[in-house]
Specification:
Order of helices and strands: HHHHHHHHHHHHH
Distance between the termini: 31 Å
Bound molecules: iron/sulfur cluster
Radius of gyration: 20 Å
Structural class: mainly alpha
CATH topology of the largest domain: Endonuclease Iii, domain 2
Length: about 240
Amino acid sequence: MNFQLSERVFSVLRGLGLGAESRDMTKKERGAFVDVELGRRYPNPPIPLDHSDSYTLLVAVLLSAQCTDVRVNKTTPALWELADNPAEMAEVPVEEIRAIIRPCGLSPRKSQAIRDLSRILMDEHGGEVPGNFEDLEVLPGVGHKTASVVMSQAYGHPAFPVDTHIHRLAQRWGLTNGKNVEQTERDLKALFPKSRWNALHLQIIFYGREHCTARGCDGTVCPICRELYPRRKSPVKTRK
Ligand code: SF4
C-alpha cells in the first residue's frame, strides 16, 4: 500500500470511526504512519557526520562507534589537517592519529584501524573506498553498520544501518521485537520499500535524538505513539 494512499485511508477510517481510535494499528499500518509522519517532519534529512568524500565519511563513521556525531564533527577537522586521504593517512604514525582522535574514545583501536584500512585501500583498492559490502566489511574497524552507512550515504545504495536510536524506536513503535540489531534490520527492510531506506534511517535517528531518547518514556507523551496506540491510556514501560 503506498503511503500517500495510507494517509488518506487513515483519515477516511477515522472519519467512519473505523480507524485507529477503534483499534490499534497493525504493524504494516504503524510502518505506514511512521513513514508518512517522519517524511513530513524531516523531508530532506542531512547526513549528520561532516565529510567531503567516501574516505572521510568512512573514517568519520568508524570514529562514531560509541561516540556522538557532534563530538566526531568537532574532532575530524584536526584529523583532516593531518591527512584527509588514504595515501597520506597510510604514512602517518598511529600515535599521531591517536592523539587527535582521543576525544572520540576507543582511540588505540580506532587509530590502528584508520591507519591499517588506509594502507589496505592503497594496496588493494587503488586508494578508493570500495562500493560493495563484501570488501568494506573486511576492512579493519568496519562492521556491517559502518558499511551500510557508507553504501547508503556515499554511494546511494539502499541500506538500513541500525544504530542504537533505530533499534530503540523500532521496538517502541512495535515495528520489530528487536532481539538484536540484525533482527531489527531484517524487520525494517521487510516493512518499508527499498526506495525509503536511505532517508528513513536518518529520519528515525533525528526523531530519536529530538523526541524519543534513551532516557526512557512512558509511551504516551508524543503524537507518534498516540497515533500508533490510540487505545493506550496509561503509561507503559518502553524499551531503552
Ligand atoms: S511517546 Fe515516547 S516512546 Fe513513543 S514515540 Fe514518543 S517519545 Fe518515543
